[in-house]
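RECORD TYPE: inverse folding
INPUT: structure tokens
STRUCTURE:
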């Protein structure tokens, strides 16, 4: 809807324009150990925990929300597509933001926006206001999506795999908790609104570690001069690596958001109760927690990513075929295989850090791969919703996901070989 990793490749010193002012990166290295290290890590983990809750809680409660707001199948498809649209459009603005505002201050605003948006969308009776307030909430997530890989490179460059695995695991854990708990919470309070809005509290908690960091870096951010010479050279849109990363990210996100938005509905149609369908959806993300922790370590240790790309493709393909042929009888097996296949998400997040030499290169590659990738991903939930409404079944939507998987695999081959976006 986050292991002791191999040390990241040595980062050659970037060629910079002569500058007597400290850069934001050098400022970060001189911060107090608590605010510059442990507090940053805690803040990153809390932010990551929130990055999919607003999405998977909606997927688990989609049937109730459709009934409560009178959404058609096409409108439901739009709602489940909204995360990718927001992430694509707003994520592209993040590099511009961090060149002007300290990342800690950006994250304070992002988490407040997420919390407010979740409260407002749970309170409305209008379908269109629901869409608009959902977009508000997702705006906060969009910015945080781009910032986390940059913060890993900036503060934990010597532990890229470990920290990427930790925050990807937190993201996966949040996804799981929201998917598993949304329906029971809604039933306990007698309304889908409770199951959708309760997560605003956790977004508010995620603000807390960034407040002292924002106050501490406020003065430094005013003095900081971005590494303009490096930023000017890093243009992922002009590189084959940048486009391959964007296509892989987009194809895996397309399937991921389609699963988050529609898998519970598929299991309901197969005869499962709403609570059981929500738990099966949660199972995909729960089983993904150890995968999220392990995948960055594997990616950092292997000379080529091809074995991982092919392995993840095989798991996803078997899961899709199983969901088409025996969605009820083999549900646990298909959920397990889907979880393995969704390991493509922590793989591509890790690869963003591995394919850039500098923090500037990382944020540029992260912004391009994610914003462009989410444009591709937007086709997933919307196309699945349209195909489901037209055909009244799941064969055509699953065929669409298999075609996207083939595109993902081809792009994965292109990013498997080690190289750097700055060099292209």
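DESIGNED SEQUENCE:
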């Amino acid at each position: 809807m986050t292991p002791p990793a191999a040390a990241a490749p040595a980062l050659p010193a970037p060629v910079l324009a002569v500058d007597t002012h400290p850069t934001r990166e050098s400022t970060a290295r001189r911060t107090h150990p608590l605010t510059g290290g442990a507090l940053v890590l805690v803040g990153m983990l809390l932010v990551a925990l929130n990055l999919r809750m607003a999405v998977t809680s909606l997927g688990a409660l989609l049937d109730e929300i459709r009934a409560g707001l009178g959404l058609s199948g096409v409108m439901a498809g739009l709602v489940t597509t909204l995360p990718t649209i927001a992430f694509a459009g707003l994520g592209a603005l993040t590099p511009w933001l961090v060149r002007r505002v300290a990342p800690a201050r950006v994250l304070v605003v992002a988490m407040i926006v997420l919390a407010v948006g979740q409260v407002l969308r749970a309170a409305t009776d209008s379908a269109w206001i629901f869409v608009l307030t959902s977009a508000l909430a997702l705006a906060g997530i969009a910015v945080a999506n781009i910032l986390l890989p940059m913060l890993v490179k900036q503060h934990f460059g010597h532990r890229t795999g470990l920290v990427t695995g930790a925050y990807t695991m937190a993201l996966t854990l949040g996804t799981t908790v929201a998917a598993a708990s949304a329906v029971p919470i809604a039933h306990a309070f007698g309304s889908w609104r409770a199951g959708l809005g309760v997560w605003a509290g956790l977004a508010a908690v995620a603000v807390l570690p960034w407040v002292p960091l924002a106050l501490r870096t406020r003065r430094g951010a005013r003095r900081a001069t971005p590494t303009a010479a490096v930023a000017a050279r890093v243009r992922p849109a002009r590189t084959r690596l940048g486009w391959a990363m964007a296509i892989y990210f987009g194809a895996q996100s397309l399937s991921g958001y389609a699963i988050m938005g529609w898998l519970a509905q598929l299991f309901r149609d197969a005869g499962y109760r709403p609570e059981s369908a929500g738990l099966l959806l949660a199972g995909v993300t729960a089983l993904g927690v150890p995968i999220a922790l392990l995948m960055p370590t594997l990616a950092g240790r292997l000379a080529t990513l091809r074995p991982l790309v092919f392995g993840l493709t095989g798991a996803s393909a078997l899961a899709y075929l199983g969901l088409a042929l025996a969605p009820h009888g083999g549900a646990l097996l298909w959920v397990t295989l889907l979880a393995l296949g969704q390991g493509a998400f922590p793989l591509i997040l890790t690869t963003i850090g591995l394919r850039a030499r500098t923090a500037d290169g990382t944020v540029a590659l992260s912004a391009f791969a994610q914003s462009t990738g989410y444009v591709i991903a937007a086709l997933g939930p919307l196309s699945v919703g349209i195909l489901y409404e037209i055909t009244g079944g799941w064969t055509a939507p699953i065929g669409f996901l298999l075609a996207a998987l083939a595109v993902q695999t081809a792009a994965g081959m292109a990013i498997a070989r080690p190289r750097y976006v700055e060099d292209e």
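NOTES: The CA atoms of residues 10 and 354 lie 11 Å apart.
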